[in-house]
From TrEMBL:
Annotated protein name in UniProt: Histidine kinase
Keywords: Kinase, Membrane, Transferase, Transmembrane, Transmembrane helix
Higher taxonomy: Bacteria, Pseudomonadati, Bacteroidota, Chitinophagia, Chitinophagales
Organism: Chitinophaga niastensis
Gene Ontology CC entries for this record: membrane
One family name in Pfam for this protein: His_kinase
Keyword flag Lipid metabolism: no
Amino acid sequence: MKNRKLLYHSIFWASIYLLWVLVFRSYSFSITKTMTVEFCYLIFITADFYAINNLIVPQFLHKKRYPIFVVATITIIALSAWLRALVAVQINQHFFHITPIDFGTLYLFSLINISIWVLVVTIVKMLIDRIQIQQQLELLEKERIKSELDYLKAQISPHALFNSLNTIYGHIDKNNKPARDVLLQFSELLKYQLYECGAEKVDLEKEIAYINNYVAFQRLRKDDKLVVNIETGDITPGLRIAPLLIIVLIENAFKFVSSFPDKENKISIRIFTKENVVNCCIFNTKERQHHIINVNSGGIGFANLKRRLELLYATKYTLSVNVEHDFYETNLTIDLA
């Protein structure tokens, strides 16, 4: 996604540059001089655009610090216009050997041109962002309605279900502790999915508690040859996350973990936060003949996970996969700010 975004930006600025060369070419000068002049403008306009949109807008405009935003924007454009005029004087003197225009006039031209183009490109970007946000909101609303309808279609009575589980639990021999423990673990998992996951976001700590219960449940199901390590420390309190995202990767690890009779079968899960970013690393050994579903393939679990991440977190997440002949590793980071 980042490479695609970089490609789009490169194509955009290259197109702008070619447009300037064609439109503003003066036949009294060589094409080399025209390309040099426009390239000089391109450098400072591009630098101003990214400085304003990536630094000044998030720090001041989004936080409604309007006077500082205006002053910072004017300062950056004025400084870049001064630098551009200074560079133009040097280029005219040392490369084209022509008498430079008065510095004040050159500075004024630079200030006007840079201001106009930065303003135009910024407005275009804001319009595109607004359209994309609106499209994402519409998609989220459609997904929400569809999910609600699917939930209503498949809805069962939680009370009746838990009463049934309690009945089953009561009929299990008290000496059969493993069976009773499995049922209790299953009951806790089901309770979380029924009562907690209806919200758009849940506490990250609750989600991790659910993951711990899921891992404990799987440990009861698997044999002793499987080694499962889970580390869920260093969690920043107060963070909230869309439910049942991380669990997809963990389910995949248990589904495709190896079953070697003569060497270690292992699953390693590490979840931690750094400020507002949650980091998840899931590793499992695998057998060579297992072709684990790749993130870009048609696997339902991964496909749904990636779709939800794109809708909910857009550019605020990364999901990577490392597949080797004897192990499989996925890494997911989400900025929850």
